# Entry
Amino acid sequence: MSLIQISNVSRTYQLNSISVEALKNVNLTVAAGEFLALAGPSGSGKTTLLNIMGCIDKPTTGEVLFDNIPTASLSNDQLSDLRAEKISFVFQNFNLFPVLTAVENVEYALFLKKMTAAQRRKEAEAALDMMGLLHLAKHKPLEMSGGQQQRVAIARAIVREPLLILADEPTANLDHKTGEEIVDLMREINRQKKTTFIFSTHDQKVIDRADRVVRIWDGEIVSA
Amino acid sequence: MMTLKIALRNIFRHKARSVITLSTIVFGCVALIFIGGYFQDIFWKMREGFIESLSGHIQIYRRGFNEHGRIEAYRYLIDNYQEIKELVSDFPEVEYVSARLQFQGLMSTGSNTISFIGQGIEPQNERQATIEETQDLRQFMKSKNLGLPVTVFGTSLVGDDDYQVVLGRGLAETMRAQVDHRVTLLTSTVHGATNALDLNVKGAFRTTQKDFDDISLRLPLQTAQSLLDTQAVQVLVVKLHQTEDTDKVFKSLQVIIRDKKLNLELRRWEDMADFYNKTAELFNMFYLVMRIVIGIVVVLGIFNTMNMSVMERISEIGTIMALGIRRRGVMKLFLFEGLLLGCIGGAIGVLMGIIIVSLVAAIGIVMPPPPGTTFSWLSTPVIVPSIVISTFFLSVFVGGVSALVPAYKASRLEITEALRYR
# Structure
């Protein structure tokens, strides 16, 4: 069963008076439960494609079906609700809230869910525990290493039990060993929870761990 | 709870900046509470001083006096004033009722002659303060002394001596009058005949009004009555225990006058206190302008902080929106921060305001004589609950208003651009 279906998608940015075509007529189908790598050099359109699949950007032309919902016609609020329910992100710079502790950062992802504070805390702690970080629950991001911060970010992503986790260059700011550990961790979650993972990278060792590699070059998919 | 926690932590993320912003709010609140309390103290002292020294709370005249009395003062005298005095004195709110008879004439010391305004008064009711009593300004500023005419030399009108007079300070200086000098008062009686009387100078007084002191003298009521050849008085001054009871007593007196068909009319102190009313109006206008100015300064302060906060947190805003928080939710978050800043600043400001006003009131500030008046006074600002409460809410409101534009700006960010921002 396909989770995402992208048909003839183009995305053009207007930079002053120049049009930049970041994606050109892209077609791609991602099945539920896939562990997929988007590979390509910087500026090839990986992030744009991730943004469109993650419903934080809309294509200029073409159609996107996410979980059989045509997202192009959804309003901003509807897209927000869709993301809150079904999509999580992991970022290159971790993007944790510096004022919140690790466990509070994870809890924040449950902010929109109807549950008691105690329930929220319990689930956040469980997610942190899964990442092996329960002992750092009360620490703030700046008191942690990059690898630990990225694990907190992954805990924040999985705690909502989304259908899809999108990771934009999740290992780019980590040393090699930590990067591999992070990818292994994502792989483990993918196996256990059947969560679909799509991550962009240009690190060959990370690419090698993916089930499927989609190569993108100059806004076009060259191999899927 | 989560929003509150995040807002609170974000406020104290940059401690120095938040302390400066909060200081602006606190300073604004303290200024408003202090100046409001200072003005209120001026109003109160002006009011009580005016009531004590000149008007009393309510004045009773013969009907028509206020319309025609200026030209034909002696046609509008109250004959049965003792009866009315007894009637009014029965009110528990009334401290005393004092009769007055005012007239004009010429005063002569033999070598010099000058025109004057005379007031026949009941000395037992119309107290004067001694110069010693004014030494302790704090004591003197208490309502029962405030506005009392002060004896500058000699004594006030005393005992049963009918042939005595006290002069306003300016008048005494002009006539070079001393204690026990004899002066002759020349005036016309109510029937138009000329009459004169020799009186002993007992002393001189000053009131808050220099103009009044330059031309006025006071003598016992019965002396004034015999000089004018009448048994009547012009006005009954009703002094209450509390100014707040004025309207209540005024209305009751109106009912009595109507029911008993008395040929009388009434005036309240505020109908006579033109200077007080205009001053209060002017100061209230000043205060409003100050509120607006301080409000704008605080708005700019918080706006600057919130704007910087939005600029610094652009990528965080992107993350929040990627997590599925709607634009309205982002706006709420920043609005909440502004409101919280206003709330914290307002609470500290109100507290500091109360402490500072209490301290200043305990010490008091000696103020120079206001224009047209004669002596220094002690300012003891008061804590006005309505000002304290409105200042707090103004601070919260201003906090919200200042955050409006930055919050809107934050909520309009494009997620992809916000996430890319470094």
About this structure: Chain A touches chain B through 29 residues (CB under 8 Å). The helical segments of chain A are 46-53, 76-86, 102-108, 117-130, 146-158, 176-193, 204-207. Strands of chain A lie at 2-15, 18-31, 35-39, 61-66, 69-70, 87-90, 164-168, 196-201, 212-217, 220-223. The domain at 35-59+76-223 of chain A is CATH 3.40.50.300 (Rossmann fold).
